[in-house]
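PROTEIN FOLDING TASK:
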Amino acid sequence: MLKTFPLGGVHPPENKLTANIAIGYLPIPENVIIPISQHIGAPATTIVYKGDYVKTGQVIATNKGFVSSNIHSSVSGKVNKIDTIIDTTGYKQAAVFIDVEGDEWIETIDRNSELVKVIKLSPEEITKRCLESGIVGLGGATFPSHVKLTVPAGKKCNLLIINGVECEPYLTSDHRLMIERGEEILIGVTILMKALNVDRAKIGIENNKPDAIDHLTKLATGFKGITVHALKVKYPQGAEKQLIKALINREVPSGHLPLDVGTVVHNVGTAFAVYEAVQKNKPLFERVVTITGKSLTRPGNYFVRMGTPVSKLIEAAGGMPNDTGKIVNGGPMMGKAINNIDVPVVKGTSGIILFPHNESERPKVNPCIRCTKCVSVCALNLEPFLLMSLSEKGLFERAEKERITDCMECGSCSYTCPAGRPLLDYIRLGKSSVIRMARERNMK
């Protein structure tokens, strides 16, 4: 019997429209806008100025503190200006505007397509290379990867878990990467194992990707300590705590991290980026993005340079359909709508979805009918109806006691609510308010 996590979860329509479409390369645009904060933690510090000429792969902003990440130019050309933009999250932040002039890469990147299997760097050098190369979690959270590879004193990691679940409907970037870059991913997994000093790694993949499971299972026979595990399809199995529970039946307590139960979780896209950084000395300046939607004429998966306007992805997919009602950055469950198609692709952009009008309208909000469906589907055993009510009324101290910060914002509660209540919207509001309140309390 296939494994899965036991508590809660939903089964939205998969709509993996691009699962069989090979990854292409999106043409380099005429201009890019590269935000200096594409990760969880402190924004990077810009080190280039207007008029500077930069090369592809060159550092343009350095990490500021331990939980931060370097930012690299994804193109070669002249810095037009450094200004603020409204990014895909809707917040204002600083960005570097670059006018493209050709595609001249920094000399240290190995552009040879030959596979490099021998890992020459030490664990400490691997961690440093990930820091220098701006590697972050590509499953959506964008947590700086070098932080996860730095095991604090008194902690011990005995297992690496690789997330190949990709449980969000519509998205197929990880799926295609596993099919087309399987060996590179497994070498990346081996590199991560060496950095963490572990001899075992488990790759979890939902069984709606049988081709990826078969392909990586065959390849894994040539890699010591790596096993591939098929999982039952259930959302949100791609979340760290749920994946850990499904694969090894360990429970990560409230307020704790995977490392507290002896494991570290990395995404398959991150493993591929680590391979390129360590074996090819290539910083993270491009990633695979799914552009999809039921009305698109040419949906697909593309390697996209960071800073490329979303409009260029839409053009590659055949242009915006007339019936487009909403454009979502990310998956339909956790993603956020955007109102400007000129916002740039960043490290956390896994997909762009164009929804038709008939799938874009919010349901009418009705009073809660006390059905408890939101409670039954919550994979973290929270009470979403209560958290929404507390957030709506501004009772943030009570919301904190009810573990609102544990919420992973998966959206299962809103998805299942028969009254159409905007549970996730209010929980996000309350969660951000509680986090701000706790930060101010700790500063006193």
Remarks:
- The chain has three domains: 1-21+107-361, 23-100, 373-443.
- The CA atoms of residues 11 and 234 lie 6 Å apart.
